[in-house]
Amino acid sequence: MDDSGIKKQNWDVKETELFLEILKELDMKKCLDGRKVRNNKLFKVAHRRMTAAGYHRSVDQLKFRWKLLKSAYYKCKREPDSPAPTKIQGWWRYEKTMIAIMESRHPLVGAGVNSDRNDEATEDSDGDASMLHWPQPQPQPCSDNTTQNLDLIIKMDPEMDSQLKIGFIGAGNMAFGIAKGILSGESGKKNLGNTGREVLSEGVKDLTVVSTVGNVLPVNVKVSAPSSRNLGRFQELGIAVTHSNVEVVCGSDVVFVAVKPHLVPLVLNEISQHITDRHIIVSVAAGVTLATVEELLPENTVAIRLMPNLPCMVQEGALLFARGTHAKQEDGALLRSLLHRCGLVEEGPEAWIDIHTGLSGSGVAFVYLFAEALAEGAVKMGMPSALAHSIASQTVLGAGRLLRDSGKHPAQLRSEVCTPGGTTIYGLHTLEQGGVRAATMSAVESATERARELGRKSAAGGRK
Ligand SMILES: NC(=O)C1=CN([C@@H]2O[C@H](COP(=O)(O)OP(=O)(O)OC[C@H]3O[C@@H](n4cnc5c(N)ncnc54)[C@H](OP(=O)(O)O)[C@@H]3O)[C@@H](O)[C@H]2O)C=CC1
Ligand SMILES: O=C(O)[C@@H]1CCC=N1
């Protein structure tokens, strides 16, 4: 490596943070296995990425910086209550990321902690990085394509391609809806404003979007299901398919669990031992609580409960998620960024997820029923069925868009349609006589209650 022209100068915060993010993305602990050639390759990749981001450090400088960071980490680990000063200025800023890198539940970690105890260095020596000592490789729970591919490029820009690996366990309607939404093009980019800031629902704090995932590529998505019957449509999108849930987990950073609620315990038991700190597990199963999911997965697993709905497929979904005990704000931001093409994405307390299931997950079916009934009314009055259905769907679409875009209360818009003594009020009167309002409220209520019941059942299933 030619280091000429690369000056020795102090590392700044941004540079160090980027370096650590790169190492984290490359799954540092997994890649560094004591084999010099492979270790060198990892630092070369980091060097390329740093250079691309405008930070010019030689491979040896990167190795030495890593050695210092590691040494600071071990110091703090040895003396958690009153850590000795480290050679890294502003160490506290990097501590969390270092812990994430060093304490991933990977077989190497235990060995690494012991063997690196004396691995300390001073910042002012330029350090012979080739002296770095790394533990020998241990058997790994699963092979991982991501970490083999050291030529990945981190692209944080939302306009650019993302290297995030997405997995779906279950290849049904909802998995397909989310996959289609995630892979959809630019036109859906409406939920992530220029400022990257969004105002959330009442009762939820504003959240700055700290993650912009970028364009997810079909090659970075994998889906599993026991049979092939649903896999074809994923393949048509360029998505890789498999019958192995473990393969999906091992090759993904974000894993959507999209099987029927009663199968969630079975699936989580199957994948549990393959989950590491790199993973965000997102359950979309109706009713299944975060407590159930977390109980079935290793301690500290980052779990998120998401309730999407089918219109994700056309980028008009309404999605609500709640973060689990170990899911940080940035995990939520990453999910939000990943899903922004699926439609409206909101975060809320878990208690709202079952309600959202009734309102929106199931609610789309209530709207379809209404659309169908509208069309059938027209057929009864003599209109050809195809035309009646086409007009009914456009009516629902138009009413929905106007409702959303005008920001008006539905009662206000309804009154704007009603001419006194005109047609609409006659029709509305008939609907009220039929109890449509009470029936609709009861539908949301029953669907919510059913979600709660499914949650209790899956919790009991998980305990068996
Ligand atoms: N449909 C919707 O509108 C919504 C659904 N949800 C939730 O999404 C989840 C999935 O629902 P939906 O997509 O409708 O269901 P589907 O029946 O369409 O799909 C279920 C999928 O799970 C697969 N599967 C079954 N057993 C396993 C297993 N052991 N490992 C891996 N995959 C398995 C099935 O495989 P195969 O293809 O071989 O049959 C199928 O692909 C549910 O929990 C539901 O509550 C949430 C919001 C809305
Ligand atoms: O009917 C169901 O159980 C799922 C959850 C919400 C929509 N479909």
TrEMBL record:
Residue span, Myb/SANT-like DNA-binding domain: 9-82
Annotated keywords: Amino-acid biosynthesis, Cytoplasm, NADP, Oxidoreductase, Proline biosynthesis
SUPFAM superfamilies with a match to the protein in the record: 6-phosphogluconate dehydrogenase C-terminal domain-like (SSF48179), NAD(P)-binding Rossmann-fold domains (SSF51735)
InterPro entries per record: 6-PGluconate_DH-like_C_sf, Myb_DNA-bind_4, NAD(P)-bd_dom_sf, P5C_Rdtase_cat_N, P5CR-like_CS, P5CR_dimer, Pyrroline-COOH_reductase
One Pfam family it belongs to: P5CR_dimer
GO molecular function: pyrroline-5-carboxylate reductase activity
EC number: 1.5.1.2
GO biological process, one term: L-proline biosynthetic process
Residue segments, region Disordered: 110-145
Gene3D superfamilies: Homeodomain-like, NAD(P)-binding Rossmann-like Domain, ProC C-terminal domain-like
GO CC annotation: cytoplasm
Pathway where this protein functions: Amino-acid biosynthesis; L-proline biosynthesis; L-proline from L-glutamate 5-semialdehyde: step 1/1
Domain Pyrroline-5-carboxylate reductase catalytic N-terminal residues, every copy: 165-287
Subcellular location: Cytoplasm
Sequence ranges assigned to domain Pyrroline-5-carboxylate reductase dimerisation in this UniProt record: 350-454
Catalyzed reaction equations: L-proline + NAD(+) = (S)-1-pyrroline-5-carboxylate + NADH + 2 H(+); L-proline + NADP(+) = (S)-1-pyrroline-5-carboxylate + NADPH + 2 H(+)
Function comment: Oxidoreductase that catalyzes the last step in proline biosynthesis, which corresponds to the reduction of pyrroline-5-carboxylate (P5C) to L-proline using NAD(P)H. Proline is synthesized from either glutamate or ornithine; both are converted to P5C, and then to proline via pyrroline-5-carboxylate reductases (PYCRs). PYCR3 is exclusively linked to the biosynthesis of proline from ornithine.
Family designation: Belongs to the pyrroline-5-carboxylate reductase family.
Assembly, per entry: Homodecamer; composed of 5 homodimers.
NCBIfam families: proC
Full protein name: Pyrroline-5-carboxylate reductase
Species whose genome carries this gene: Lates calcarifer (Barramundi)
